[in-house]
Amino acid sequence: MNFEEKLASQLKPEEYLINIGPQHPSTHGVLRLLVTLEGEIIKNVEPDIGYLHRCFEKICENRTYPMGIPMTDRMDYLGAMLNNLGYALAAEKLGEIEVPVRSQWIRIIVCELNRIASHLLWLAAFGADTGALTMFMFGLRERELVLDILEQASGSRLTYGYIRIGGVARDVDKTFIKKTNEFIKLFPAKLKEYETLLGGNPIFHERTKNVGTMSRETALSFGVTGPMLRSTGLAQDLRKNCSYLPYDQLDFEVASNNHPDCYGRYLVRMKEMGESLKIVEQALEKLQDGEIMPKMKPIFKPKKGEAYVKIEAPRGQFGVYMESDGKNKPHRVKFRAPSFSNLSVINTIAKGGLVADLIVILGSIDIVLGDVDR
Question: Residue 19 in contact with residue 33, Cβ under 8 Å?
């Protein structure tokens, strides 16, 4: 008996089973939801994952350390720069490598810009999920400006491979700094525009408030992190609590609130974009001349040992476990992907709601299936 047959055999006479996905555009990737309904009321939601099954962890174990970086680009491909960072930090911890100061500030700038780009695409898609199609065009409009900046630094617009073990691939130039400063001046007015479009829309409020409510206890028991957890009132952000880059030298707030529903998650991400912009502005001011890569041996072979690093990715805590046996390839690599844990809570927070709310709830989680099926 397969998964679907088992669920069907447990149905009551008044219940029926439907599929949402894996090709449905509102599933934000190749995700299949098996939904048990009674009328329009959700009785159960079972995510069926594994359609991608990319095996990146095993691939990384069969490649040299630097060759693993492009694999991280293709997990959470909307936050690829931060995946690069997590992998590089783990390798640097194994190899006891000290990253140059200039590279540390460049890493902060590009990662926070990537966080904004990720949240903008989420906001665009979330607007479309709730019926606000104009938001989709607005969100992509400003995201293109961020991608132009990241392209100026790395040469790519989605999968960057820019952060390397020891530093970054190449230095940023005057054009990068000019474009970044222009975006810093432009973006606050655009954030207000988004707030007027969505935050001032009564239909958006009806679709999101008290929908997909999740208690803090539920979030912690499922390992939920990131904006979803911070919407429960827990101001947990690894940039503050476990600083892996010189974030402690910057002035910014942790975006959190006490609205543990779809609307609260929207508010967290909106505020987080503003805080990321403040971080980028301060990091640009601290950018100083210097090397971008330390002196390293041609072949990277860290001594035997293990390392675990966790960072604050756009969707939550991204962790990298890496084990070395003294060779030029990692002996073990394991990724802790935030989308995987965040998706697991969907049955708990959707149960009892309407089937029309399910798409909004899923959109508020902000998953990337490459992160789930890594």
Answer: yes
Give the bridge partners for 334, in sequence order: 321
For residues 252-272, give the mean pLDDT: 96
Copy the structure tokens of residue 177.
Answer: 């700094």
32-38 and 163-164: which strand pairing?
Answer: unpaired
Q: What is the crossing angle of helices 174-194 and 133-154, to 10°?
A: 170
> CA-CA-CA-CA torsion for 162, 165, 169, 171, nearest 10 degrees?
110
Does 56-372 carry CATH code 3.30.420.100? Answer: no
φ, ψ of residue 18 to 5 degrees: the values are: -125, 155
Q: Are strands 316-324 and 332-336 parallel, antiparallel or unpaired?
A: antiparallel
Q: Could you tell me how many residues make up the chain?
A: 374
Going by the DSSP 8-state scheme, the letter that residue 368 receives in this structure is -
322 beta partners: 307, 333
Share of the chain above pLDDT 90, in %: 86
Q: Domain coordinates of the chain in residue numbers? A: 3-48, 56-372
- The encoded tokens of residue 135 equal 């938001």
pLDDT band at residue 27 under the 50/70/90 scheme: low
Nearest by Cα to 33 from 369, 314, 264, 263 = 369
H/E run at residue 42: strand 41-48
Contact call for residues 183 and 146 (beta carbons, < 8 A): yes
CA-to-CA distance for 347 and 154, rounded, in angstroms? 39
SS3 for 168?
strand
Q: What pLDDT does residue 1 have?
A: 64
Choose among 187, 198, 186, 175: nearest CA to 129.
198
pLDDT digits (tens, 9 = 90+) for 137-186: 999 999 999 999 999 999 999 999 999 999 999 999 999 999 999 999 99
Within 209-288, strands assigned E span none
Instruction: State how far the alpha carbon of 316 is from the alpha carbons of 115, 239, 311, 342, 347, in Å.
Output: 11, 11, 8, 9, 19
User: Of 166, 135, 132, 172, whose CA–CA distance to 152 is shortest?
Assistant: 172
Query: Which tokens go with 197?
Result: 């479009």
